[in-house]
Write a structure and sequence with these properties.
By secondary structure, the chain is mainly beta. Strands 2, 4, 5, 6, 9, 10 and 11 form a 7-stranded mixed beta sheet that branches. A 4-stranded antiparallel beta sheet has the order 1-3-8-7, with no helix packed on it.
Length: 128
Amino acid sequence: QVQLVESGGGLVQPGGSLRLSCAASGFTTNYYAVGWFRQAPGKEREGVSCMSSSASSTYYADSVKGRFTISRDNAKNTVYLQMNSLKPEDTAVYYCAAALVLTPVQAMCTKALGVHYWGQGTQVTVSS
């Protein structure tokens, strides 16, 4: 059974940090581009960061550049999102996703192009 399971969300104060993890099962992430999306209440889904299968290309939304870092550990079939200097506007449900191997990372993040698998989401709340 194919699954993406996110973890690491929670409540954090502004300026704090969180590290999200996404564990894949039922398929090998080596052959997929991976990414993180988020959706806040009443807002459209936003691609936060995406990474190519080789990790040679990454994309970050302008709103998170310099604060968030995507990484992957193919040996563990896991993708991470390190989030620093968190702001209240980062509050959302965060989803990880996997897309077909040749999907351009910018297109994956901005249009969800080629996304084949989605996780169930993890809540991140930034509040004092």
